[in-house]
Amino acid sequence: MAKTKDVYIEPMTRIEGHMGVHAQADLDGKKYTEAHCYATMFRGLEDILRGREPADAIWLAQRSCGVCPTPHATASVLAVEMAYEAPPPPMGIALRNLAHMAEESYDGALSCGILEGPDYSEAVSSKMNPELVAKANNTPAPNADVHGYATIGDILRAMNPVTGSFWLKCLGAAKNGMDIASMLCAKHPHQNNFVPGGIARTITVTDIEAAYILFGKQVAFTKELVPIMDDVINFYAESDCCRVGDLPMDFLSWGVYDDPFSYDAKYANMSKWGEKRLLPPGVVLGGKLVTSDLIEMQVGVQETVTHSYYEDSPRAEIAKDPLGNPLTKDHPWNESNKPAAGPDKNWTGKYTWAKTPRWLDWKKRVDGKTHVLTANPIARMYVAAISQKTPESTGSSIKFTLPAGTVAGFRVPGEVTMEWKLPRLNNSLERIRARAYFHAYSCFLAYKTLAIALAELKKGNTKVWNSYKRPKNGIGVGLVEGMRGGVGHWVVMRDGKTHRYQIITPTAWNVSPRDAEGRPGPYEAAIIGSTITEPISGELNGIDVVRTIRSFDPCLGCTVQVFSPDEKLLANCELDHMHAEDIFHTQDHVEGKTHNHEHSH
Question: DSSP labels for 177-214?
Answer without folding.
Answer: HHHHHHHHHSSSSS---EETTEES----HHHHHHHHHH
